[in-house]
Amino acid sequence: MDERCSVRAIFVGEFHYSSRRRNAGWSAYPSPDPQMFPREFITAAINAGRALPIPKRRGGGVTGITAAVPVAKSGD
User: What is the DSSP string of 38-73?
Assistant: First the structure.
């Protein structure tokens, strides 16, 4: 996967980072919502203990409990 791809993480603490590879820097602040940043920044934040990774979604079908529970027909 391209190193510049954006990925998501949940930040549990404030984190500031300057890229070692390009002329750029990023800042993130704590939030219960996932935030999207370049992979380099997310990796550094996770290694510093300031962010939690979000697992990649797999598959593409229906998710949740409704996918596994058949619907009962009334009147049978």
Answer: EHHHHHHHHHTTSEEE-PPP---S--SGGGTSPPPP
| Domain limits, the chain | 6-55
Q: What mean pLDDT comes out for the span 7-18?
A: 97
The residue type at 60: G
- Note if the pTM is more than 0.70: no
Secondary structure (DSSP) of 6-35: EEEEEESS-EEEE-SSSS-EEEE---SS-E
Whole-angstrom Cα Rg for the chain? 19
